Amino acid sequence: MRERALGAFYGLAIGDALGMPTQSMSRAAIERAYGPIRGFVDAVAEQPIAPGMPAGSITDDTEQAVLVARLAIHGGGRIDAHDFAAALREWEADMIRRGSLDLLGPSTRRALDRLDAGAAAEEAGRDGATNGAAMRITPVGIATPLGEGFLDAVVAASRVTHNTGLGIAAAAAVAAAVSSGVAGADLKTSLDEAEQAAAEGALRGHWIAGGDIAARIAWARGWVRGLGRAGLADALTDVIGTSVAAQESVVAAFALAENLGDDPAAALTLAAEIGGDTDTVAAGCGAILGAHHGISGLPAHLVDKVRAVNRLDLAVVVDGLLQVRGNDGRISSGPRHECRGHAG
Question: Which residues bind Mg(2+) (predicted)?
Fold first, then answer.
């Protein structure tokens, strides 16, 4: 279980770092700037979010996942809405001090502004339908077994910023695939569990228009089976989509896992080539496949590089999350705690 949990978190970080230099660029622009992506590369000067960032650098996907993990661990499995909001604000301030343009996404920013203005936690994220909750949900999947209370854990970690059926369904899908993988399920079972969790998650939170996450994952999985690399890339960019919308980028991560699940390196490098929200697509796919293959099933040179470049040691965080899982794995909203978690 520890091997798979480490794989999930490092898989997320590797995917995130592979997608860093190509995020928010078109597929054609990526081809012109980098050619085929075969590993970590430095961001070019014209990169719109991370210009010149060194190869192997992580982005907000990993840093906010670490933030969620630390809040859950320090809170004994409880994530308080106001502590979470304060930690996100602190994280963004630190990013600004570092000169980064990789800041809070649109749904998260709107929700925190509402919370600061006095809105209830249940209302702050009433229109959050982007992929922000899904991108940082991996720690919940590691800490929480499937079953009674699982969806409540996902909602508790998502509702402040993404309290919509789309936002929660997307987060539930990723968390379920990770949790199932950590428990030792085969990849097909984990992806099936993700579909079921997405269907249940869609019934939580505020309704907002958009394609059903569970239905789109099921459709995408069936469609991409057997496609070659070029055909898969076309399917992802032209039809499934890779924008920040939850029903595009999260579904794209599952399509990659379905088609290239036996080869994490191939899946994650392709995710980095297809344009759009590449770091989040690759991070989500990396978490899913890492939970299935374990850390020893990820390319060792990529694990070593992402550790060294970011001074990233996730072992203590993963051990803390597994301890929560061992204590029934219940992550829920609860009384406020004095401890404030933040990304490393």
Answer: 59-61, 277, 279-280
Q: Is the pTM of this model over 0.85?
A: yes
Look at residue 71 and tell me if it is in a domain. yes
CATH number at residue 220: 1.10.4080.10
Distance CA 56, CA 135 (A): 18
Which amino acid is present at 293? H
- The encoded tokens of residue 152 equal 């409540």
pLDDT digits (tens, 9 = 90+) for 183-227: 999 999 999 999 999 999 999 999 999 999 999 999 999 999 999
Does 279 show up as a binding residue in the annotation? yes
What token pair was written down for 155?
A: 């909602």
What is the residue-wise DSSP string for 150-218? HHHHHHHHHHHHH-BHHHHHHHHHHHHHHHHHHTT--HHHHHHHHHHHHHHHTTSSB---S--HHHHHH
Q: Is 237 annotated as a binding residue?
A: no
Q: Calculate ∠ Cα 309-139-123, nearest 5°.
A: 115
Residue at 340 is within a domain: no
Distance set, CA 44 to CA 53, 54, 103, 225 (Å) = 8, 9, 19, 34
State CA 44 to chain mean position distance: 24
Residue 94 · residue 344 · CB < 8 Å: no
- Which H/E stretch holds residue 268? helix 264-273
Residue 176 pLDDT exceeds 70:
yes
In a domain, 337, yes or no: no
What's the token pair of residue 186? 């085969």
Annotated binding-site residue? 16: no
- Of 104, 116, 115, 111, which is closest to residue 126 (Cα–Cα)? 111
The verdict on whether residue 328 carries a ligand-binding annotation is: no
Range of the domain at 148: 1-327
Residue 344 lies in a domain: no
| Distance, CA of 117 to CA of 16 (rounded, Å) | 32
Residue 130, marked binder: no
Residue 319 annotated as binding site: no
